[in-house]
Amino acid sequence: MFTLEKIRMINTKGDKHGTITVRICEIENFEVTTLRIDVVTDGRRVAVQFTTDWQLYANRRDLTINSIYFRFYGRIASETDRHDELTLKAIRANAQSLAHISGERI
């Protein structure tokens, strides 16, 4: 997928858990995590199985609003609750405020 879009992968150390870092336009890094479920875990280590089922993946998250799924080209999809635009607007506003206070990008 990234090769097709000519997006450079710069860190694949987390590949066995489904997380890699990509560099967009040689400007900004993003961590990208594939859909996965925990198969075996002892509280410290985990064996994962990759899936294509958004709901199954979302079930492993601990908060309803914890996961907002981004699709390519800037579309936001929250498959579990389909948050309304007002909720998403509030999240964006809070993230911008926190970034302004801390000086870090969120």
Helical proportion, percent range: 10-25%
Strand proportion: 25-35%
What is the topology, as strand order, of the major beta sheet? Answer: 1-2-3
Strand segment tally: 7
H and E order: EEEEEHEEH
Any low-confidence stretches, pLDDT <50, length ≥5? Answer: none
Tell me, briefly, the overall form.
Answer: extended
- The overall pLDDT average reads 71
Q: Give the terminus-to-terminus CA distance.
A: 25 Å
Largest sheet: 3 strands, antiparallel
Identify the quaternary structure here: single chain
Rg is: 16 Å
Number of helices: 2
Structural class: alpha+beta
InterPro entries: Bact_CCA-adding_enz_type3_sf, NT_sf, PolA_pol_head_dom
Cofactor: Mg(2+)
Domain Poly A polymerase head: 6-76
Organism: Glossina palpalis gambiensis
Description:
It is extended and about 40 Å long. Strand 2 (19-24) and strand 3 form a beta hairpin. It has helices spanning 54-58, 85-102; strands at residues 8-11, 19-24, 28-33, 36-41, 46-50, 69-70, 76-77. The protein contains 2 helices and 7 strands. It has a 3-stranded antiparallel β-sheet with strand order 1-2-3, with no helix packed on it. A two-stranded antiparallel sheet has the order 4-5. The protein has a domain at 34-100. The two termini are 25 Å apart. The mean pLDDT is 71. InterPro entries: Bact_CCA-adding_enz_type3_sf, NT_sf, PolA_pol_head_dom. Pfam families: PolyA_pol.
